[in-house]
Amino acid sequence: MVTALYLDLHQEFSSKIEEEIESILERLGPSADSVRSVVTGLLRHQKMKYPLSVLPLVVHGVETGDPGPAVPLSAVHVLWWTSACYLDDLSDGHGAHPPAGLTPHEALLAAVVTGHVLPLKAIGSRRVPEPVRAALTAEVLDCGITAVRGQLGDMRADAGDASRNSVVTAYREKSGAPFGMITAMAAILAGAEAGRTDLWREFGSLFGILWQMFNDQEDIVSERNEDLLNGTVTYLFACALEDAAPEVRHRVLDLRAAARTSAASRSALAGLLLAPAVLDRYEDDIRRFRDEAHRILGDLGGDERHLSVLRQLVDQTSRPLLRAASAAG
Question: 3-class secondary structure for the chain?
Answer without folding.
Answer: CCCHHHHHHHHHHHHHHHHHHHHHHHCCCHHHHHHHHHHHHHHHHCCCCCCHHHHHHHHHHHHHCCCHHHHHHHHHHHHHHHHHHHHHHHHCCCCCCCCCCCCHHHHHHHHHHHHHCHHHHHHCCCCCCHHHHHHHHHHHHHHHHHHHHHHHHHHHCCHHHCCHHHHHHHHHHHHHHHHHHHHHHHHHHCCCCHHHHHHHHHHHHHHHHHHHHHHHHHHHHCCCCHHHHHCCCCHHHHHHHCCCCHHHHHHHHHHHHHHCCCHHHHHHHHHHHCCHHHHHHHHHHHHHHHHHHHHHHHHHCCCHHHHHHHHHHHHHHCCCCHHHHHHHC
